[in-house]
Amino acid sequence: MQPKQSSIEPNKVTSNQLGKRQSTMKSLTKLAIAVSALSVANVANAEDVLRKTDDTLITLGTPMTGFNRQLSRPVWDFGGIFGPIGFNFAFGYNSEPGATTPFDLTTESPADTILASGFDPAYSSLFDPPALEDQNRRFMDVGVIVSGDGTRAPVGNVQDGAPWDATRSYPNEDITLGDWMKVRGIMTIKCDDEGGATLNIKARNLVVNGAYTMWGVFERDFSGDGNIDNMAPSALGGAPNIVVPDEKGRGSITRFLNFCPLTEPTLKIVTLAYHSDANVYGAVPELGLLGYPGGTTTHDHISFAVNVVSKVLPEG
């Protein structure tokens, strides 16, 4: 889904508004810390919404293996022409010699399945399939940009290379499905009196020292005829929208928004996406038109519902 510039007009932020939003951010941080201490055995099947009022939404995240997909199953019904649309963006590594096609992840996939890059054929309606060499790569072996001409290549761990070598940050280990699905998070949205909002996400069990970005997925009218005809991600709160988890896999991000998501029904979900290539791309989550569509280098890890019809993910 190739994002285009949002049609939402920015609001001017006065010094008074900025002061209010800074105060709101401090309050949200305290609230999120308190709620994040809750023990949640299975976020995917828990009651996600912890609090919802006219101006506040506090909700838990759902572990994902794609856009609106968890283990190849739809998570939410978006309603309208989209329903439970979605795509797989994480796959199981196929260790057969010479294999270029990874396995789809399902509820039957073992917890020790190694995650790999791949391409959902359903995504071909938006982008051409990537090169075979960019599929079925373990996340730790996905190529990173190593030269000024954009050349990509797998690189080793920082502890194994010379000080000047292109390397990945520690620990750069294989990521298993079991570890991936342990991700947990909480999103807090607080709308203000000026028509804007403050959004905060706190997450744990992310990929240690990994590269993440935050996206809002909107319904859009790309044809300009006044009818919704597409969905596209936007760098919610503006670029940069980067999160780098600490050595314990904890990460957070706070952004000021120029609209209230609770009164903007076109915003469907908010997502933290992992970049297995250690690269980020400004105001777009992926370089689909350059041969790197979702699933090859960008992988939705945890998502938060904002305006959906219902959660359709089966229990278990």
Summarize the helices and strands and which ones pair or pack.
Elements: H1 15-36, E1 49-52, E2 56-60, E3 62-63, E4 66-67, E5 69-70, E6 73-74, E7 76-77, E8 87-88, E9 91-92, E10 115-116, E11 144-145, E12 152-153, E13 156-157, E14 167-168, H2 177-180, E15 184-191, E16 197-204, E17 211-220, E18 230-234, E19 242-243, E20 251-257, E21 267-275, E22 298-305, E23 310-311
Parallel strand pairs: 13-14
Antiparallel strand pairs: 1-2, 2-15, 3-22, 4-8, 5-6, 7-23, 9-10, 11-12, 15-16, 16-20, 17-18, 17-19, 17-21, 21-22
Output the keywords.
5-stranded antiparallel beta sheet; about 30% strand; mainly beta; 23 strands; 2 helices; about 325 residues; globular
Give a structural overview.
This protein is globular. The longest helix is centred in the N-terminal third of the chain and has 22 residues, at 15-36. Strands 3, 17, 18, 19, 21 and 22 form a 6-stranded antiparallel β-sheet that branches. It has a 5-stranded antiparallel β-sheet with strand order 1-2-15-16-20, with helices on one face. The protein is built from 2 helices and 23 strands. The protein is mostly beta strands and 316 residues long. The chain has a domain at 15-90 and 182-311. Helix content is 8%, strand content 29%.
